[in-house]
Amino acid sequence: MDTRSEEGMSDKLIxxxxxxxxxxxxxxxxxxNAILYPDSEAFVCGSERISFKGFNERVNSLIHGLQALGIxxxxxxxxxxxxxxEYPEVFGAAMKGGFVLAHFNPRLEAEELIRxxxxxxxxxxxxxxxxxxxxxxxxxxxxxxxxxxxxGNAEGHMIAYWEVxxxxxxxxxxPRVREEDPLVIFYTSGxxxxxxxxxxxxxxxxxxxxxxxxxIGVEFGDRxxxxxxxxxxxxxxxxxxxxxxxxxxxxxxxxxFDPAAALQTIAKEQITDVHIVPTQLVSLLNLPDIExxxxxxxxxxxxxxxxxxxxxxxxxxxxxxxxxxxxxxxxESGPHTTVLxxxxxxxxxxxxxxxxxxxxxxxxxxxxxxxxxxxxxNDLPPGKIGEIIVRSERIMVEYWRRPDETNxxxxxxxxxxxxxxxYDEKGFIYIADRKNDMIVTGGENVYPKEVxxxxxxxxxxxxxxxxxxxxxxxxxxxxxLVVLKEKAQAEEEDIISFCRKHIAxxxxxxxxxxxxxLPKNPQGKILKKEIRAKYWAHK
Length: 539
Hints:
Layout lengths: L13 H4 L8 H11 L4 E5 L2 E4 H17 L7 E5 L5 H12 L2 E4 L6 H11 L3 E4 L4 H7 L8 E4 L8 E2 H6 L15 E8 L5 E7 H15 L6 E4 L6 H5 L2 H5 L3 E4 L7 H11 L3 E4 L1 H8 L14 E4 L6 H11 L3 E5 L9 E3 L11 H4 L7 E2 L3 E6 L12 E7 L5 E2 L3 H7 E2 L2 E10 L5 E6 L4 E3 L2 E3 L1 H8 L5 E11 L3 E10 L7 H9 L10 E4 L13 H9 L3
Parallel strand pairs: 1-11, 3-4, 3-5, 4-8, 5-6, 6-7, 10-11, 10-12, 12-13, 13-14, 26-27
Antiparallel strand pairs: 1-2, 8-9, 9-19, 14-15, 15-16, 17-18, 18-21, 20-21, 21-22, 23-24, 25-26
């Protein structure tokens, strides 16, 4: 006899209910939190607040709604939206319903979106209000997408998200997910500019979440301010450790970072944790009235995505206190691979030799093996620069539908990151350079070839080279060197605006330098190392 109630939970057999879903899956965690912490806040976004019980019920209704549309376990569902309350609900539906969630970058232009959405084979696409019109205009080009659900007003044949929730049952779906099932696809640009989706199983996503929760030191009652975009592997990876332990995630709904609003929210919501990139810390420190905010609730500021200038970190420590933690990783690595702890940041009070530690990205996390190797895969001794390779139970399984590129990136279980670095005698790792010329600007990855391909489409451009150069705000900005065709004319703003019509703004050059020629080797290859040298000589 099944004594489970119609609501899906028993009033008496709590321990039995806790065994409904398979261990090692987020379905188990979502249901566990709904039973043990039903009235505690799970997510907050503006004036909207949702408890763990409410979150579970909304996820259930969404699963039943998708199943009514014919969406089955293993089908891909995509999401194109800025941060909002519905975002984690869609992920929750994938976690409990057995769907695979593909995240899409809202900064992409229409032609880029068509490529990446088609690559994912998403049958359903969830849309933030800002993207209804653009997707409506390109929907005919999306060969696999059969349904679009709009968080705001639905256009044409689109379905209103809220109607799906209101018209379907809140009861628990049949247990269906397993640890080995695929769960999520995070997209990262390839060196050729083609989309590559890093796919993770429930087990690998859970492994990353558990270890990151340990490294953060998060506990029940902690409150995380979500300022990084949730489509980004870094922003997403910081949310679920708090959910895991019954903490609360307070979502900033704005597409761009508002430093004053962030500090106001920290004070109002008694935020304990925030995850930022270095440019956001610069914005916070530049506020003239920063001392006037009540920030005493802050326990930790986690920073990642690009190197933190030492002087900026020094200012941050003086304003916020000893609350900083650093992590290093990439889309394909889980992303969590190293951690520079709060304790390690005390090196600022030490002698110059000790302070060198702050230039590192930390030591390998628990459950992560890392090596520095040369081009023949020989292990290098401390201080010698080579490629960083990673092995763990939380690296991606593969690139979605790209077996050849998977085999190039993962060899004998080791993920080849393309990042160059070295380590010291204590196992601290230092990032030295990027093997494939990738630019990290404001926490976003930009691959020069993709930008150069657009530049060459400009009628006045004969040759172009794109590099990253130092910038006090972006840390590194996209800079284009352009050789014009004979008798052709163009202005800097003309080149920049042309690029912005074809690729996302963050990928487009922020500055353009017109030159008579570009240095090349005897084979005609442009020597980017030589070009970069004058910009980075004193860095």
